[in-house]
Amino acid sequence: MNSRSQPQLFPLTRLLVRLLLSELNALLYTLGLAAHHLKTACLYFLSGKLSLKQYLEQAAFIGVDALGISLILTLFSGMVIALQVAQELTKQGAGELVGALVSMAILRELAPVMTGFAVISMVGSAYSAELATMTIQNQVDALKVLHVNPVRYLILPRVCASMTMLPLMTILTAMAGIVGGMVISYFIGGLNYNNYLESVWRQVQPHDIYGALVKAAVFGGLIALLSTTIGLSTTGGSREVGISTTRAVVWSFIAMSIADFVLSFIFFSGVS
Predict the structure, then answer these.
(1) Residue 237 carries which DSSP code?
(2) Which residues, other chains included, contact 207 with Cβ-Cβ below 8 Å and sequence gap of 6+?
(3) Helix axes 238-268, 206-232, angle to 10 degrees
(4) C-alpha–C-alpha distance, residues 141 and 146, integer Å
(5) What percentage of the chain exceeds 70 in pLDDT?
(6) How far is CA 107 from the centre of its chain?
């Protein structure tokens, strides 16, 4: 019997395996390319070749586009936490712990993570789409012809802007989340503002702030580096621009989640 006429076993499983292998190959290629871009960008930065104008443009772009949604996300996250714990802890006579719980959750986790999510959605996707469009329209090749390195011109300002703006945004979003928790604690649990803030001051330690700022800086660097690398490695036409944008968002979420666990383990493991 002709082997071509025999039905293949588990066709859907084989298709799934091929898709997974293809995605894994793309991921490994992108990670290697991102590492190379990071090395090149660091060399340009250390040699003082960062364009201040481009850096300020990207910093303003990140702040304008992502700060509003970051504040909203963290504000309501703090309100939800307070809604869950304020009334019950007050009934148990432990109302002085509400501010401590809200501030610990906001500073250590929610403020940098929610800010990172907002930047991925608003900025990372825009970076990937913009650079992918430039690549398929041969604008990146035009830069090379003019002896302008795409890493210095396109990647370095975006990475530096993301790494500096996310910590600043995290400070503001953390304040919004703590204030939101304070308001809900007052209306739901009847907790006095002074008692809430005193609980916050007792709980917040310098390492909480340092950890949140380092998290935000690492998240910003990962988001910008992956988004721009995926954009610059795009080939094909307009359909591939959409694929690259989706891939940049998904991979940035995954990379940020992994980095969040590692940094939380480093900064907060064993810390009471």
Answers:
(1) S
(2) 267, 268, 271
(3) 160
(4) 9
(5) 95
(6) 15
Residue listed under structure tokens 């304008």: 64
Buried b (16+ CB within 10 A) or exposed e, 18-40: eeeeeeeeeeeebeebbeebbeb
What is the pLDDT, as a whole number, of residue 94? 74
Cα–Cα distance, 257 to 269 (Å, whole number):
16
C-alpha 265/C-alpha 252 separation (Å) is: 20
Question: 69 pLDDT band (50/70/90 cuts)?
Answer: very high
Q: CB under 8 Å to 67, separation ≥6 — which residues?
A: 169, 172
DSSP letter at 96?
A: G
pLDDT tens-digit series, residues 26-49: 788 888 899 999 999 999 999 999
Cβ atoms of residues 240 and 234 within 8 Å? yes
CB atoms within 10 A of CB 144: 11
Tell me how far apart the alpha carbons of residues 90 and 5 are, in angstroms, rounded to a whole number: 73
Domain ranges in the chain are 40-266
Local structure of residue 120 (DSSP, 8 states): I
Grade residue 1 by pLDDT with cuts at 50, 70 and 90: very low
Q: Tokens representing 172?
A: 């503001």
Residue 10: the pLDDT is 65
Q: For 119-138, b where at least 16 C-beta lie within 10 A, e where not — what string?
A: bbbbbbbbbbbbbbbbbbee
Dump pLDDT digits (tens) for 255-266: 999 999 999 999
Distance CA 67, CA 74 (A): 11
